[in-house]
Amino acid sequence: MRTPALVVLAWGVWLAGAQVAGAADDQPSPAPSPQLAAEGKALYGQFCRNCHGVNMVNPGTSSFDLRKFPPDEHARFVNSVTHGKNTMPAWGDILKPEEIEALWAYVRTGGKT
Amino acid sequence: MKALLLATALTMLLPLEGYAQSSDELTKGPNDTANVLNYGMDYGQQRYSPLNQINKQTAKSLVPVWSLSLDDNRSQESQPLVYNGVIYVTTHNATIAVDAKTGRQIWKTKVEYPPETPRIVCCGIINRGAALYEGKLFRTTLDAHVMALDAKTGKELWKETVIDWKNGYAQTLAPLVADGVVITGTSGGEYGIRGFIDGWDPATGKHLWRTYTIPGPGEPGHDTWPGDTWQHGGGSTWITGSYDPELHTVYWGIGNAGPWNAMMRAPGDNLYTCSVLALDPKSGQIKWHFQFSPNDPFDFDSVADMVLANLNIRGQPTKVLLNGNRNGFFYVLDRTNGKLIAANQFVKTLNWATGIDENGRPIESDLTKKMRTTGETVEIWPSVWGGKAWSPSSFNPNNGLVYANTLELGMKYTPTRPQYRAGTTYWGADLAWVFPKDGNVGYLKAIDPLTGKAKWEVTSPTPRWGGVLTTGGGVVFSGQLTGEFEAFDVDTGQKLWGFQTGSGVEGQPVTWQQDGVQYVAVTSGAGGAYVVYAGDERLANVPAGGSLWAFALNPQTSP
Fold first, then answer.
1. Domain-located, residue A23
2. Residue B329, SS3?
């Protein structure tokens, strides 16, 4: 009985966090640090490029053109990558939160690094 | 309960005829023009039909007879099978039976798999088709299961786990039924797998044998792998093999070595990656092997169609195996012993090797040697998609030519050193695509297998990513990623007809005759490896959306 309660609690905390992040997201996040973006690029190469294209270049018809991901929707990015969305698989059990932040930094470069 | 019993009793009373394909029927291939029972149109995968109602003169009168929505936005690469007026087609998440004349769905059985599974599928969420035998339909699933359905009702009869998909094993291929054994392979060459081919009992799903494509300790060829590298060495088997019943031999192509960085598995040839294996279907025992690309750094999978034909070689009728290899060379082997007969370049630009020596070993170029010693970025042609990717070709026995969808695309290639982590990619190289100057990536070619030279070629900006079919009517059928399904003159390459199917064609066309009418069917639905991975933005206005199309001559306008 304890575990489900804990899970519910964790879920609630996460939701609250997401909401806070969502509110902050109304302003565009500050420019990504080049170092974080480089880490993100390496992770992208390992986990994302075969569906989203080399340097994020893809026709955007069968996956998502990440160059067009809204730069002020950080919470949506974290949520979609963590939990998946439609046919996009979830990565929350493989990627650590800081890795998802690095990916976000890379996505914000538009693939130009 | 009563109703159920009654239903079961009724099913048992129904004559089996009409649903029970025998081994005999599976060997008929092009001689049985009423049905399409094999992946590749016959056991030798020639993708040829003698039918000639649709011919060079009449093809312009082709019209769609019907179209069926596959209710799926993933890539559609399934080859339809046809038996007694019923079409069987698969998607990644369903198996479907269709009335061949009306296009009405007869049954549809969903395939469930965990939503995380696509994480271990490198190159498009697809299924390439089914196999039929003794009233059962066999297929594989993305999460590495093999299953049998009742061909009449779609009811699941058995479902067996191949291996844990979480370690990077997926399945997209159509099974092969050879000598009463259901034979399947696996994907996962980019996820650090150790590849294999399996044999299953069609009646019960009992696992009969497994042949690893990478020999374990003590097995011949194991010493071609340094240290533990064999454990994650790749060698996937993701395209259906061909079968010669007379020689009682199955020919199965083996995928690339993993990771792509060959320095991580050197020295050694890394058997049996990038090879073809000749196997006994009853035991899975290896009779011979031929390796196309030893210690391959460039993802030159050799899984694509191993076409069986009879050619005149130096005046002798010879049982050959034909393969337009991803490495850019066209191979002709003697399939009784695996000896090389010919290997010639069939793409325009190729710089990783300067030729193939008489023993079948590639002569690597200085560029490749430099990359191997320095690990520097090099511009290599063809790219990891190869001179010909998975797209199955057609052998036309009337003129001895092979009709193939080939590619002109290069890459900037930089080897990297990945860490193995179960269930995640194990690439081993960074890539950037190099598109040809004239922009044409696609070349549909009529290739002389003995010289690699093309009698004619038809170019296209984006490549044709599906299969090719040729017929006794002198027509070549194939589709475009931009949606057109087209017919060409087998002798000249002149376009005879085309029709826009509404999404990209990645499917494998088939033809059969029913009540005096010749039909051609193909699936449409973009979203395969090239669409998601190759970064070709010229496809940005080709929507996803799967459908199955059937065409025939318009009785009003055809002569």
1. no
2. strand
